[in-house]
């Protein structure tokens, strides 16, 4: 649904008017044209270049001086720096334009009618006057020569299947005589062969008049001039011939009895498709046809045939195809003047949409086209989303607001008198359906939507530049209809690189005239060629893009309209980096910007490139929609988006559940976006349409509806497009809860409300599935933080429905009960039961409610719930609707009916496995059922629940406690078991339990309650003291021996064993046993002093050894890091010579080694596995993590010495008994060791090591730059450590005062 929009038009006229141009080609230099005339070769330079080179061919006699000569072909050969010219006399010449030398490289006596070079310029094909073809190389060496007219079909001859000859087949209404009738070539046919190459240069087609049949035949030859196929006899086949560069069809024309057609032939010579030209039979002749380089446009050059007393009119038409329909997109009328007759036309090979035309009067024109979609620019609901397609003298209009009609069909069509070239929609959003149409006669026709047609003449406005105006059929371009009903149109300036902006206003309708006139308000000269013009319907800004990529703003609303540069927010003039073929104006973060898209898919915002893979874009309200080369359609909200964020969004990977992106079919392009709707219309490469509802647009529209409380529209859209209905609530919970009745009344459908209930989930969908594009998502605090979302909605809506009409919304009320968590099935069942018992309600309605409830909930689950209500009528009601056999459930129910109420309920609860409830009912059944009660408690471990059902002074309470205590003892929870026993008065079992748990105080209490004698109590205390000693609890064991067995001597020995010096000294003096001082205490403290000295000495020695080894290991690692930059080096054999350097590995090597070792360990026994865990880091020299093992051991040494500060009490005892020397020695040694360790900590745990433990080089927060920086600073890679605390230095407790001042 695209039209061809004219971007540029160039006109040039040469001073060489003495000769007549005969053919032309494009030069190698951009903008140069080589023209062959009857006297020689002329080069036309680009506009503004005064140099025009000419080579005469009459001087050397290659062309006659009387002007009767003819050049049949011109080809520029850049590699040979010359131009190849073929004359009708048979000469093939090479002309050098610089030296003006002419060399004859070959000559054909019979003359030449055609010279045609292959697309790669490797071969040249000549058609001679003797009806032969000569194939030559680029060096003009003949390859072969063949007759044009061959008797055989060619190598691709069809296989006959024996279905009879062509002559015997059905020949239509004219009969077999028509097939035998002699055909003649058309009278205007010049009889010359026509040659056309396939795009890849592998085949060439030749059309020539067959001497036998008198009609033209098309023969396809290979590159080696081997005949491939011959076309079937085609009556009325004309001279024009062009092979589609993509290679599948050869185009020609055919005059049929009632029409004039363009026909297509396949390579095998058979016809394949056609379309009809918009002329009567015999009205025009087709001189030439040309495909452009990408096979999308077919140019046809036509001339009138029946003209009396004047020269014929000349036309050029541009045809395109889409969805198997051919559209006439542009029509160029050159008039009937002799000087304006066409000589030839060519498509540019590099700029595929540029057409070059040469006229008899040495007028050279070129036109640059590009594709554009002409669509209405409104954004309100009255806008019909019209898209207009040019098709000759018709405009096909499709109103996408009503229906998506696939082309070539349309909603309605407008018929004009002349072929249409441009369409402009009104830029006022209120009149977006109005159209202005510029036809081939430069007349503007205005169509207003819903009114009668107004045809406005343009002929009264003179915009010519002077008397020597060059004929230019498309002198006006970029027709734009401004909001004030005036028009803008761009014309050609006085110079080639200038344009004029014409501002036209309508003259009031004069009486007696059929047509309105347009008055030229003013013409604004533009210093540069205008290549695009856009008027924004929102901001009413008019922007022009010039050929030098500058952007100008036209201030049309000013009293005197002027042009000024477009300034960006930083105050600099905007200039696109590349020429853009589509422009648009929008606002990004409130700033007005211009968007541009190049023909190479690069999208610019002002002068910033935001993407390089965009195939089309459209602005819709505050949204930008784009399609990309990766077959996606992306949508961005520009309201709160910066240009950088847009750039990142278009280039970066998008979240998988992002609403900005959706996949589309390959090659899709945006046609239009329907306003106040969610439809995005896409066109596929073939031409068919697809409508998608882009998630971002859908959600934006739903949010607008919800903000306006238009719940019905939002719900229907969400249901149709499968948007999760949770968004109805999550968008704004407060508003939804306040307008629940409005929601119910608008939806007004039980089924829809039930659908809403069933989709409810606890998650907030505005944060998970549908995060807002412009970050304006719901941020209100939850009004009911203690209540679940689903339960809250169900309760609020249920209350609202019960208030509006409980009977109408009965099924929805049931759904609300069932949807809650946990489901309120009993209430739902009770409501159904009440309905059945209600006389006012019809029985059918109650049955429907029950059926619906069974649909929501599994019937077996519902049966169990009904049984749990203890209402047998309800149970039978549900059971009747289930698949259960009455022989199964009726006897069970009858048995239950006969039981006592509490026991009946106990039986039901036990059947439903509701054991806690069953206990409650069973406890009310009397003492005769207590044994059953106790068995249930033991089976289900319901001891705590059972104890709550009986008073603490009852025998039942005691029995339950006894069972509970035994249960806890089995679980080895002896202390808790003892508490349960003691509380119930079972003191003997409590004593055993407390003894087992080591609670000696509680055990002695129980012994007292049991009335133990003194001896028995002493034995108990002695046995418990032995267990406490085993647990290293010497102080508590001493208390037992002293207080309960009066064995104070043993108590003192225990205290000395536990190094509790002061407590031992107290007991010695309490019981006046000073002899123990000499026998036991003094030897013990001296022994303790010696052992501490030995311990400190060993720790100091080990510390120094490990510290020195750590320094060696680190030096080796640093050396290895300097020498080895690539980390494959650890596998080199040289490293294995040194055990130390083998510990230098990278993190990856270390990981691999440990993964292997761990896999082996996993296969061992658990004992070995525990042992391996204890020895994670090996101290063995050369092991991978030796430095980490050393750090671990050094840390343990420091912590072990730190605990020795407890010798403060020992020092006091040594001083007390006069051992000052031993005490001083011990204090001095400890002080030295501590000082050594404190000074060594900063050397061992270096700041680098501590930093790496905080922020490792490699890790989830690392970047490529941080890793590279770390390596450039030659930081060694931190090892992968399982315990990060190994890398942190141990702490010293400075607050502990352990030293004795008197020893210093």
From TrEMBL:
Which keywords accompany this UniProt record?
A: Cytoplasm, Nucleus, tRNA processing
Out of the domains of life, which is the source? Eukaryota
The answer to whether the entry has keyword Chaperone is: no
One GO biological-process annotation of the entry reads: tRNA wobble base 5-methoxycarbonylmethyl-2-thiouridinylation
Q: Which GO terms describe its cellular component?
A: cytosol; elongator holoenzyme complex; nucleus
**Low complexity bias: start-end ranges:** 1155-1165
Q: Name one GO molecular function term.
A: tRNA binding
List the pathway annotation: tRNA modification; 5-methoxycarbonylmethyl-2-thiouridine-tRNA biosynthesis
Q: Where is this region: Disordered?
A: 1149-1178
ELP1 N-terminal second beta-propeller domain: residues covered: 389-671
Q: Which residues form the ELP1 alpha-solenoid domain?
A: 695-896
**Domain spans labelled ELP1 TPR:** 903-1066
Q: Which residues form the ELP1 first N-terminal beta-propeller domain?
A: 1-350
- State where the protein is found: Cytoplasm; Nucleus
- Pfam families per the record? A-sol_ELP1, Beta-prop_ELP1_1st, Beta-prop_ELP1_2nd, HB_ELP1, TPR_ELP1
**What are the residue boundaries of the ELP1 three-helical bundle domain, all occurrences included?**
1075-1244
Annotated family: Belongs to the ELP1/IKA1 family.
User: Function, please?
Assistant: Component of the elongator complex which is required for multiple tRNA modifications, including mcm5U (5-methoxycarbonylmethyl uridine), mcm5s2U (5-methoxycarbonylmethyl-2-thiouridine), and ncm5U (5-carbamoylmethyl uridine). The elongator complex catalyzes formation of carboxymethyluridine in the wobble base at position 34 in tRNAs.
Against PANTHER family, the record matches this protein to: ELONGATOR COMPLEX PROTEIN 1
Q: What is this protein called?
A: Elongator complex protein 1
Q: Which organism is it from?
A: Malurus cyaneus samueli
The taxonomic lineage of its organism, from the top, reads: Eukaryota, Metazoa, Chordata, Craniata, Vertebrata
